[in-house]
Amino acid sequence: MTENLQNQLAAESLPTRESPSPSVVRTILRRELRQILGGFRFQASALLLVGLMALGAVTGGARYRSEVLVQSEVADSYAEATSKVTVDGLTETLLPAVKPPWRLAPVIDGGQSATPNVYAQALSALVTPEIRQVHSGNDRLPGREPLDWMFAIRVVLPLAAFLLGYDAVCGESRGGTLKLLLSYPLPRWKVLASKLLALWSCLAAPFLAGAAVSLLLAAGPAGVPFQAGDWIRIALVGLLGLWAAAFFALVAILISFWCREPSTSLSVLAWLWVTAVIVVPALSGLLAHRVRPIPTESQIARRMRAIDQEITREYAGREGHWRLPEWAAADGFTWERASAAAERRRADSRDEVRHQALQRKIGQARLAKTLAWLSPTSPVADLGERLTGSSLGRDESFLAQAQGFRQVLAERVKALDASDPESPHILFFAGYVSKRAVPPGTLQRFTFHERSAREGLGAAGAPLALFGAESDRKSTRLNSSHITI
Question: Of 47, 340, 411, 478, whose CB count within 10 A is highest?
């Protein structure tokens, strides 16, 4: 190996010690590339990376099509239920707000395949809202982990970087070629930089190839209708993947530099991979569950009963009276108005309990993500979710938009009821509002507004700066290191 390196360097015009030629750096870079590309480790890593990203495009596209089909049935049911409905009948109809299928599922799922996507609410305070997930899959089947780009970035890329780079420095030192490399008149950090660039190139090439294959499969056979804004988000995730590849390659070079034996370097990197990919995320979820527990169903039920008791005491028997409208009209619906006020108060208190429980769940998940930043792979996933507007941000936005959608419908139904002089105007309780039919086209469907790419960049600004500072710190330590033989 030493003779081959000598021949490669001798083929170039050797520099003097006063003016080192860049040809030596290019020779070292080409040698590193040939050494990595010609090995089985690169071929296996590249095949695994491209294959998983292609499989993720197929599975993500299939899930997208199935969700479109199921959600179209929900939309058709809503259209049928409101086609010939009266204002009176509409009050107790569950009006669904549907979170559309996530088009970027092949790129970054962000937990969207496992979170609720329908929030059905009625205008009447007597009807309990429903928040659920509608899908056509089988929850009993294994393999629920989405094989998206982010899985490749946070799991496969560090594994490939560690396998390809664990012996980048200590292997050369043990084989005797590092001494020859360092005998040439160039700064020693350039030797390490050449190794880092070669390793990064051998990670970036299969990642970009896998990204291209997955996009072709997703936009073609899978039929995912990417929009103009989606391509910006896809490009941002791709750049994040290249950045992550450089970071993991830098970690591999540093560990190989610090260890004297390749076996020790491989053991340390294997321990780092298991800790970063498996242990830290699992412990962060466990700690978040302990530090910020969510209320149990029995606790929520007790709070609901306490609300009922409070309403009973406050209204002291003036609630729960519902007479026939023609009988109640004699005294101006006095009992019914008191009962309606009590039910609205009860419904608002119960909604507050449900809202707090949802916020606790979201807060627990956000705490787990924060704790997982101890792992170098978790910040990459968090940054990808922020850039694309998926994960917790999308779920919170869906809940807020769904509640706003109910308010818009409530104002429209209130206007329809106000235009009927024969209505008792006790909103929104069946039997005590207008019996007129809802005019066609009066009720709109829920439209979900995705976060723009600019908003995603704004949400990821601080984490990007933190992750960039960590990368720069490791790079500085590499540049300032002194290689000893």
Answer: 340
